[in-house]
Amino acid sequence: MSKRQNILILGGGTGGITVAAQLRRKAPEFHVTVLEPSEHHYYQPLWTLVGAGDTAKESTVRPQASVIPKGVEWIQDAAETIDPERKEVVTKSGRHLAYDFLVVAPGIQMNWDRIEGLAGNVGRHGIVSIYGYEHAEKTASALESFRGGKAIFTMPGTPIKCAGAPQKIMYLADDIFRRNGVKADVVFASAGAKIFGVKEFAATLDKVIARRNIETRYRHDLIAVDAAARRARFRVTECEGDKVTGTREEEVAYDLLHVVPPMSAPDFIRNSPLAVPNEPLGWVDVDRGTLQHNRYPDVFSLGDASSAPTSRTGAAIRKQAPVLVHNLIAHARRIERGPVWKTYDGYASCPLITGFGSLVLAEFDYAGKPAPSFPIDTTKERWSMYQLKKHILPRMYWNVMVKGRDF
Predict the structure, then answer these.
(1) Does residue 188 contact residue 170 with C-beta atoms inside 8 Å?
(2) Which of 53, 116, 180, 352 is the Cys-Cys partner for 140 at CB 3.0 to 4.6 Å?
(3) What is the average pLDDT across 191-204?
(4) Rounded CA separation 74/274 (Å)
(5) What's phi and psi for 185, nearest 5 deg?
(6) Exposed (0-12), middle (13-18) or buried (19+): which is 130, by Cβ within 10 Å?
(7) Cα 75 from Cα 252, distance rounded (Å)
């Protein structure tokens, strides 16, 4: 009798749980193990609405045990090192876990300490963020109690999870300020060169910016804060056309500062052989189509930590998971790459909230082309899409996606 093959999944977030559930449905002959330290599982896309006071944070969390698929082993521990040559993961508690096939889905690491003076000051001195379960609720309180002045919303130069979130909370904050009769100078300070990467949706967002009279400061990367003095320091990239001519630093006073930390793959990935060679952020080096590792064929990866060059969103994982699962099963059953393997086309979706009751559903692929799921013009702001974001997608997540069902 042949040995039962073991699939080890690093991470019990959206990617890890979705893959585990689909594997149980499609290949019950494998033994599937999820390595995840957290006691809680979060639906993070709603944290923008938590930060605006439109959703309770408690609705975004469930016990981790409740989402572990039946028949899947859960080891409540974290990975420390990976040895793909020996096909072994060592955990922080010292356990040695052997695998036949490895799925790497640990999520993304938020590097708060990369911004000088920021650590320990989120939630104090006018500094807020929706990037965190506890931070989001404090953001709602800060926005409601804001009494006017300069409100700066930042966007770092690294890839981040849900790249649209920094501006979504800004539009909602602007609505709150107007509703409360507060005079605010709202500034979007982004390390990027434009409001959004897909031109069809950028055109709509530029109109939103103009309508709201929001000041944009592109190529401004937040590098330090003096929390007590309420001053922020940016590295500004200067350009002539598309050519970079130099950098300088600029210090700005603020009354409210919404921060988004630089992000990277978790350290244990960055320091492992699985990372893209000579790439400082440490993404898992995978084929962008098959999601199989480029150097270790028994390793696959999806989600925020993979090198797949698309937005880091739950919607991207929704399309990546069935491709990864199909190809992993084919590989495990020794079916060579070819027509029977599936290919991920880079689909991602960013529900861009432009105000309370208004949303642009940005869906696109690797080519940066719109890839709409609905037979409507999704470049327009719509009330219906806001309801989709707030009410329908969370239900689909808890009841369909993490149960391993395709949709």
Answers:
(1) yes
(2) 53
(3) 95
(4) 23
(5) -95, 105
(6) buried
(7) 47
What is the total residue count of the chain? 407
Tokens of 47: 């944290």
Cβ-based neighbour number of residue 289 at 10 Å? 16
Our measurement of the distance from residue 113's CA atom to the centroid of its chain's CA atoms, rounded to an integer in Å, reads 19
Output the six-digit token pair for 164. 């649209």
Q: Of the given ranges (2-16, 199-213, 334-348, 359-373), which has the lowest mean pLDDT?
A: 334-348
**pLDDT surpasses 60 at 2:** no
Q: How confident is the model at residue 336 (pLDDT cuts 50, 70, 90)?
A: low
Query: Is 162 an active-site residue?
Result: yes
Does the pTM of the predicted model rise above 0.90? yes
| Residue 10 host element (H or E) | strand 6-10
Is 350 among the catalytic positions? yes
Q: What is the pLDDT of residues 230-262, one digit of tens each?
A: 999 999 999 888 888 999 999 999 999 999 999
> Which amino acid makes up residue 18?
T
Residue type, 208: V
DSSP secondary structure code for residue 391 in this structure: I
Task: Say how far apart CA 63 and CA 65 lie, in whole Å.
Answer: 5
Give the mean pLDDT of 258-283: 97
Amino acid identity at 230: R
Query: Mean pLDDT across the stretch 214-229?
Result: 97
CA 171/CA 6 separation, integer angstroms: 47
Say if residue 124's pLDDT is above 80: yes
> Which pLDDT score, from 0 to 100, does residue 406 have?
79
Residue type, 212: R
**Helix, strand, or coil (residue 173):** helix
Q: What is the DSSP string of 313-374?
A: SHHHHHHHHHHHHHHHHHHHTTPPSSTTS------EEEEEEEETTEEEEEEE-TTS-B--SS
Residue 18's SS3 state is helix
Q: Which two tokens mark 386? A: 């806001």
Annotated catalytic residue, options 162, 173, 257, 302: 162
Active-site position among 10, 350, 359, 360: 350
Element housing 81 (H / E): strand 79-83
Q: How many CB atoms lie within 10 A of CB 237?
A: 17
